[in-house]
């Protein structure tokens, strides 16, 4: 990231990262959509959160139009010289697959609080997206339209947007706070909320390093 911020990261590294990240985003959004069903018991008790959760899920799939954020991801992928076929057809690097599988395991085997521990990092992804957007537009000649994926997620994860949709990071923080206040923040031995949050952070770093190593091998 330091090399990227300074404009010294080769474009082939960015292409390697985004080819895998694009595939990752498609899958992580569908995993997140499953949380409404899996965590319905919690939302039945906290019905005021049902509308913002529905808006959060819908935001991923209908903005700017169906099938949603997938379209802005493709717009930035194309600006990096990637094709739709590359995003959809190439197997992800194992390090990217590791985070998807970790998140999926927490959803289906973990507790509701452990899931929201994992996704508290969505707020940090918003800040990270802002840094990526600035680097692309300052040093790599990208326009806002070409770097739209990062501009969109900087806004969606951190700010109220699209006629009152709560920032995704704010919703996740609110849900975790409610779980803690209601005494519903169950944790499993060797897992727990903090572990899930920090593992999510660690795996993001692992993905970035893997993209750099893959680009250097090619």
Oligomer designation = single chain
- The rough form would be described as globular
Strand proportion, as a percent range, falls in under 5%
The CATH architecture is Up-down Bundle
- Count of strand segments: 0
Structural class: mainly alpha
Q: Share of helix among residues?
A: over 70%
* Major β-sheet annotation: none
Secondary-structure element pattern, one letter each:
HHHHHHHHHHHHH
Corresponding CATH superfamily: Heme oxygenase-like
Query: What is the total domain count?
Result: 1
Arithmetic mean of pLDDT: 94
CATH topology tier name: Heme Oxygenase, Chain A
Low-confidence parts, pLDDT < 50 over ≥5 residues?
Answer: none
Rg on CA atoms, Å = 17 Å
| Number of alpha- plus pi-helical segments | 13
Tell me, what is the CATH class? Mainly Alpha
SSE order and pairing:
Blueprint (H helix, E strand, L loop, with lengths): L1 H4 L5 H23 L1 H4 L1 H6 L4 H13 L6 H11 L4 H6 L4 H16 L2 H8 L1 H19 L8 H11 L9 H14 L11 H25 L1
Helix pairs in contact: 2-6, 2-8, 2-13, 6-11, 8-13, 9-12, 9-13, 10-11, 10-12
Molecular structure report:
With 218 residues, the chain is mainly alpha-helical. The protein has a single domain, classed as Heme Oxygenase, Chain A (Up-down Bundle), CATH 1.20.910. Helices cover 73% and strands 0% of the residues. The chain is built from 13 helices and no strands. Helix 2 (11-33) packs parallel to helix 8 and helix 10 (121-139) packs antiparallel against helix 11. The radius of gyration is 17 Å and the shape is globular.
């Amino acid at each position: 990231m330091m090399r990227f911020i300074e404009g010294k990261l080769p474009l082939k590294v960015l292409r390697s990262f985004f080819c895998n990240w694009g595939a990752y985003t498609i899958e992580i959004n569908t995993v997140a959509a499953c949380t409404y069903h899996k965590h319905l018991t919690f939302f039945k008790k906290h019905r005021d959160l049902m509308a913002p959760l529905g808006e959060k899920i819908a935001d991923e799939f209908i903005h700017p139009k169906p099938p949603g954020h997938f379209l802005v991801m493709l717009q930035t992928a194309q600006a990096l010289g990637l094709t739709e076929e590359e995003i959809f057809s190439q197997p992800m690097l194992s390090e990217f697959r590791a985070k998807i599988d970790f998140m999926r395991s927490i959803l289906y085997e973990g507790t509701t609080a452990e899931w929201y521990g994992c996704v508290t990092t969505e707020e940090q992804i918003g800040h990270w997206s802002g840094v990526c957007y600035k680097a692309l537009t300052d040093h790599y000649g990208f326009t806002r339209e070409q770097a739209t994926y990062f501009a969109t997620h900087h806004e969606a994860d951190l700010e109220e947007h699209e006629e009152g949709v709560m920032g995704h990071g704010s919703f996740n923080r609110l849900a975790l706070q409610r779980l803690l206040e209601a005494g519903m923040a169950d944790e499993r031995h060797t897992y727990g909320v903090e572990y899930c949050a920090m593992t999510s952070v660690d795996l993001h770093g692992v993905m970035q390093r893997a993209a750099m190593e893959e680009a250097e091998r090619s």
